[in-house]
Amino acid sequence: MIVTELIEKKRDGGEMTREEIEFLVNGYVAGSVQDCQMSAWMMAVCIRGMTERETADLTAVMMDSGDKVDLSDLPGVKVDKHSTGGVGDTTTLVAAPLVAACGGTVAKMSGRGLAHSGGTLDKLESVPGVCIEQPLERFKDIVRNNGVAVIGQSADLVPADKKMYALRDVTGTVASIPLIASSIMSKKLAAGADAIVLDVKTGNGAFMETLEGSKALAREMVKLGRSLGRRTVAVITDMNRPLGMAIGNGLEMKEAVEVLTGRIPLGDPLVEVCLILGSRMLTLSGLADSVAEAREKLVDALRSGAGTRKLRAMIEALGGDPAYIDEPERLVKVKSIVPVCADRSGFIGSIDAKKLGISAALLGAGRFRKEDVIDPAVGILMNKRYGDTVKEGETLAYLYVNDDKHLDEVVRMVSEAVSVSGERPAELPLVYDVIE
Ligand code: URA
Ligand code: CA
């Protein structure tokens, strides 16, 4: 086979065979296909699309490019959850321990934050001592003993995605449903869980901004999971605002503890989305017959403190100091807390979640390049949420600051991201659809 002919075939709208996809992807990992060739082919995929069969073959070839995790010696249904990436979205740190507290087995390999969206690993590492790189046997022992472990993906899991994603990031080829679906699902499938709950975000803070695009991506990923024998459900959730009030790693860990300890009440958007995702994890695990029954069990685990105990035990097993879970204020000690105030009275009419995510990253909560170092204590704590009334001069958000290098810019960005309008805005749904 000749690489240029394969690029031309996709450029002209042709359908690739499994062998052709293997030749390209395996050749790219091995170095015989060059960066410029892979990016030309992926751009052709962005424009021409892929059939269901091609996407399934691409996913399988990527999954087979490296090590696969075998969880079969752990008892019960192993359940994983994945978010396509949001802002102020600390659902894993709440839902995973709650599901474990209800008898579930949660074995999750997680990622780092990317651009404006946060990553669970960075949030875990806000607790001093936590080590997210663990040998596979140690990971399985934690799951066996505690019912839940979240660690970093091993370096040899889906090397094809590592290389392709890095290239997509710099060649304008991220926003393609077959490329996103194969990227996410190859990693989820290689990580070995029997059941996968996908939280597909939609809105201004998500990778997929339109509901149509998010639904198409969700359907594609559910089909891929099913076709490879995994129980898979996708929940399409709103990302036209930060889900919780906290944006930043220690702030989000603290917020997760506040949810688990009942300091944030039922009905709060973050709590509700955690319960919705957790319910799906329990029903897919066969531990509840309906989502209503699952929700009751999860609420019991919230009220009894069982979820907090699971999180605490996991942090301790990863080497972290559990005193920070008992006193989460210690996670967010900063040099200064700077309020951003409303310049008029009215309602919080719209929130640019992506801009808030970038603002938090500028304060040091996120990375713009892989090698950037995160400050776990900094970020943004919202004081108002979508639809709230606000008076001129009232605080919209508090900035948690250690380094004021970008402070003026961040103050401006946050006040632009939260717009105050004269009219009460329409309510936003939390969940748009569930793809089963
Ligand atoms: N997250 C991924 O892992 N891959 C993508 O392509 C997009 C988001
Ligand atoms: Ca996330």
Outline the low-pLDDT stretches: none
Outline type = globular
- What ligand molecules are bound, each kind once? uracil, calcium ion
**How do the strands of the widest beta sheet line up side by side?**
3-2-1-4-5-13
Tell me the number of helical segments per DSSP (H or I, 4 or more residues long): 17
**What's the SSE pattern?**
HHHHEHEHHEHHEHEEHHHHHEEHEEEHEE
Largest sheet: 6 strands, mixed
N-C termini distance = 39 Å
Number of strands: 13
The percent range for helix content is: 40-55%
What is Rg? 21 Å
Mean pLDDT: 95
Class of secondary structure makeup? alpha/beta
Q: Provide the CATH superfamily of the largest domain.
A: Nucleoside phosphorylase/phosphoribosyltransferase catalytic domain
- Approximately how much beta-strand content do the residues carry? 15-25%
- Named at the architecture level, the CATH assignment of the largest domain is 3-Layer(aba) Sandwich
Key phrases:
single chain; 436 residues; alpha/beta; Transferase, Pyrimidine Nucleoside Phosphorylase, Chain A, domain 3; Pyrimidine Nucleoside Phosphorylase, Chain A, domain 2; Aldehyde Oxidoreductase, domain 3; 3 domains; six-stranded mixed β-sheet; four-stranded antiparallel β-sheet; 17 helices; 13 strands; globular; binds uracil; binds calcium ion
